[in-house]
Amino acid sequence: MSKIKKVVLAYSGGLDTSIILKWLRDTYDCEVVTFTADIGQGEEVEPARAKAEAMGVKEIYIEDLREDFARDYVFPMFRANTIYEGEYLLGTSIARPLIARRLVEIANETGADAISHGATGKGNDQVRFELGAYALKPDVKVIAPWREWDLNSREKLMAYAKQHGIPVDFNKGKKSPYSMDANLLHISYEGGVLEDPWAGPEDSMWRWSVSPEAAPDSPTTVELTFAKGDVVAIDGKAMSPATVMESLNKLGGANGIGRDDIVENRYVGMKSRGCYETPAGTILLKAHRAIESLTLDREAAHLKDELMPRYASVIYNGYWWSPERRMLQELIDASQEHVNGVVRLKLYKGNVVVEGRKSETDSLFDESIATFEDDAGAYNQKDAEGFIKLNALRLRIAAKRQ
Prior knowledge:
Elements: E1 6-10, H1 15-28, E2 31-38, H2 47-54, E3 60-64, H3 66-78, H4 96-110, E4 114-116, H5 125-136, E5 141-143, H6 154-163, E6 179-182, E7 187-190, E8 220-227, E9 230-234, E10 237-238, H7 241-254, E11 259-265, E12 271-277, H8 279-295, H9 298-316, H10 323-335, E13 341-348, E14 351-358, H11 367-370, H12 383-401
Parallel strand pairs: 1-2, 1-4, 2-3, 4-5
Antiparallel strand pairs: 6-7, 7-12, 8-9, 8-13, 9-10, 11-12, 13-14
Helix pairs in contact: 3-7, 4-5, 7-8, 9-10
C-alpha cells in the first residue's frame, strides 16, 4: 500500500462506513477524518459525532448543507427540466458533486492526502465521487475499500464488526431490506425483492408518500412563484430553496405524488432496477415547464429540450464539475432571465395538474393575437398563405420529381 498519512472519509455513522473507518486505519496505518453531511435525508446526523468519537476520531466534520444542496445543485438542475432516460429525476446523482467538493475542501483544510467513500465497485456513485474529486484536486488519492478488500458479503462484514468491537445495531427498530439513499430531492430503494424487475414493490417500502389510492379525495391547490427559473415562494410566502423542497415534499407526499419504478442504464454498463420517491421534484418539473411555456421564446425552449438529455447524462455520469456542464449551465441560466411568474397547481391522487399560469412582466402570450374572436387586425390571417407556400416549396419540388 502507498503511504497515506491522513484520509477524509465520507462517514454516515452506519455499519459500513464504521467498518471502513477501522479498515482504513488497519490497512493504511493512517489518521482518519470523518465528514458527515445533512442534505435533507431526514435522519439526525449528530449521532455520527458520538460514534466517530467512540472510535477515536479526533477531527470530525458535521455540516448542515441543505441550503447549499438545494440552491447550488437542485435548483440549477431543474432550470433545465432535467430528467434522465425519460423518468429519473437524478436525486442521488445531484448530491454527489456536493459531497465530493466538501471531501476535497476538508482534505485541503486538514492536510489530508487522501479521501475515501463507501460506494461499491458496481455502481455509479464511485464514478461520481471520484470524477468530482479529481476535477477539483487532480493529485488527490482516492481509497475505495469495496474495490480493495475481501469483505464482499454481509456475513464477512458482520464478522469483521464483531471481531473489532464495532457496534452493529446502530439503528433501532427493524432494518429495511432495501439499500436506501435519501436527501432533500428524493429517497431511493434498491436490492431485496426489487432485484427481480417483475416483482412489484411492497406497499410497506415507501417512506415519504401515501399511495395514490389512499390520498385525500379532495385536491390540494398550491401556487408557486418563480423568479429567474427558481421557486421563491409558495402560496405567496417567501421561502429559501431548502424550505421550498421540504414544503413540496410534504404536500406531494400527502397527495401520493412522486413515486417511480425504473430500470435504468448505469454508467458502468449494467441495468439496474430502483424505486424512487421524488415528490418535490415531480411538482417542480411540472410547474417549471408551465411557467416556461408562458415566458420562454419558442426556439429557446426547443433548444433547451434538445440539450436536456445531454445535460442529464452529464450529471448522471458524474461530470458536474466538467467544462461541458459549466458551459451548458451558462446557457441554461441565461435562458431563465425572464422565467418569472406564478403557476397554480392541483395535487390530486398522484397527479400534478397545471390549472393556471401568469406573468405580469414577462409573458409572451398575447391574447389579442391568440383569440378566436375578432382580433381587431392584430394578426392578418392572409399572411399565412405565403408562409405555407414558402415552407411547402421543397416538398412540391420533390413531389414533381417523383
